[in-house]
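FORM 12-B: Structure-to-Sequence Request
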């Protein structure tokens, strides 16, 4: 890409202020993130980017320059990515007008987090079912369930009891068990029928606690169904799964840390 855009060697080596990444790599990453949200690109496997059918249409009939503002104006997926529907009042990190530095930093952080979550989910979907099983085990243990990785690994993915993929201890003492169903789907939504089957399996083993995880989504009907159950069933979709992975440090590491400091008034109050 550097050759194609006639970017010289000095510009290619230019680092971000954090020193963690080149400016070129960072901009390519964000360009790909936005284009994937628009459905113009996809990532069939690690290290590969592919033009979609929509991308071919844009290449043929679209503008000479596909800018971020053009993507926002024409693709709902990009608008949701930049400013989620539940936080419409969130400041846009590209617009510095009428914002405090703290607001700018917070808005930028939230967009970085959304980008990371989207990339994480893409990575998970490309892995094998065994990998997904190990991911579920590690995440639940880091969230405080299952006791240890060794104990949890023995339980999850081994029962195969009619809609149940495994069990995990609710705490380190194993006072109660939580039953798990995990579906690694690319785009197929989980409907009420599958959730109802899981609930039936829970009743079959006389359990009142279950977690249903998926890399895709749950339909509205499925979510409404679990609201009025006596059995406690938690539905974790792909978006929430990625958020938990970030929160509990599964599949991610810290690239940069920024501290915002303020004056310590007590230090200067010597009277």
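FORM 12-B RESPONSE
SEQUENCE OUT:
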């Amino acid at each position: 890409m550097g050759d194609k855009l006639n970017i010289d060697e000095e510009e290619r080596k230019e680092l971000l202020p954090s020193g963690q990444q080149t400016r070129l790599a960072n901009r390519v990453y964000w360009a790909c993130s936005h284009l994937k949200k628009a459905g113009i690109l996809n990532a069939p496997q690690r290290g590969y980017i592919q033009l979609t059918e929509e991308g071919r249409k844009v290449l043929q009939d679209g503008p000479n320059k596909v800018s971020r503002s053009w993507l926002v104006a024409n693709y709902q997926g990009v608008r949701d990515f930049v400013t989620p529907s539940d936080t419409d009042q969130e400041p846009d990190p590209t617009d510095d007008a009428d914002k405090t530095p703290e607001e700018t930093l917070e808005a930028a952080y939230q967009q970085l987090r959304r980008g990371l979550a989207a990339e994480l989910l893409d990575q998970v979907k490309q892995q094998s079912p065994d990998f997904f099983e190990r991911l579920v085990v590690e995440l639940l243990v880091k969230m405080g369930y299952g006791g240890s990785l060794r104990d949890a690994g023995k339980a999850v993915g081994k029962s195969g009891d009619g809609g149940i993929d495994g069990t995990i201890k609710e705490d380190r003492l194993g006072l109660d068990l939580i039953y798990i169903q995990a579906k690694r789907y690319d785009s197929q939504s989980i409907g009420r029928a599958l959730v109802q089957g899981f609930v039936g399996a829970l009743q079959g083993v006389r359990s009142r606690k279950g977690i249903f995880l998926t890399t895709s989504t749950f339909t509205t009907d499925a979510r409404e169904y679990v609201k009025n159950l006596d059995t406690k069933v938690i539905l974790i979709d792909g978006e929430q799964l990625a958020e938990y992975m970030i929160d509990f440090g599964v599949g991610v590491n810290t690239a940069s840390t920024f501290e915002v400091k303020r004056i310590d008034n007590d230090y200067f109050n010597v009277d």
